[in-house]
Description:
The chain is of the alpha+beta class. It has helices at 17-24, 27-30, 41-56, 105-119, 135-143; strands at residues 2-3, 7-11, 61-67, 73-83, 88-95, 125-131, 147-158, 161-171. It has one domain (2-124): Gcn5-related N-acetyltransferase (GNAT) (Aminopeptidase), CATH 3.40.630. The protein is built from five helices and eight strands. Strands 1-2-3-4-5-6-8-7 form an eight-stranded mixed β-sheet, with helices on both faces. 27% of the residues are buried. Bound molecules: coenzyme A.
Amino acid sequence: MFRGRKVELNVIDMKYLDRIMDAWNNPELKQYLMGAIPQSRYEEESWIKFAEQEMKARRSFVFAIERLDTGKFIGTVGVHDINWVSRSATVGIAIYSQEDREQGFGTEAMQLAIEFAWNDLNLRRLELSVHSFNERAQRIYEKLGFKIWGTAHQKMFIRGRYVDTIFMELFRELT
Length: 175
Ligand SMILES: CC(C)(COP(=O)(O)OP(=O)(O)OC[C@H]1O[C@@H](n2cnc3c(N)ncnc32)[C@H](O)[C@@H]1OP(=O)(O)O)[C@@H](O)C(=O)NCCC(=O)NCCS
């Protein structure tokens, strides 16, 4: 649907369920998100259905990220919790496997999501949160223009330790 040089974003769909099941039960990936709590097929199906309902209600949009060179489904990116009065939303991204990371796919996928938020949804502010140890993610957000606006100390318990959460924001007029 939205095509860059390296990746394409397509609307989330039940056809991605098996790959999402694998990814969301992988502790290596989950450490960067909300921690390694197992998730059943029922939960993952419900998550996709919920994403579809959210999309219909124009509250959130979740996209599958697909590589243009191989067509492989490599992760998801989303614009969530849209507030139409304030014209703001949150964003999130996950590239599932290490083999697909650090080749520019994540930066481009998030760039496409930002362009969608500005040019198609007419939003003006995006926000995200990231664990303080996740320097790779912070690097791509900084590259895309996000600025840190705050830190919540020891907010999340991830794999045996409390970690700080960094909050970042991006304003359309500054991009
Ligand atoms: C974070 C994520 C989306 C980034 O996507 P990606 O495709 O791997 O990243 P890119 O290749 O586009 O860019 C990575 C950048 O981080 C840099 N980087 C890599 N490791 C780093 C580290 N430990 N510290 C700082 N920067 C780092 C790279 O050099 C590159 O920057 P550059 O282009 O200036 O050289 C992806 O790695 C991912 O999904 N990781 C697991 C889940 C996750 O962390 N999600 C985000 C939760 S907030």
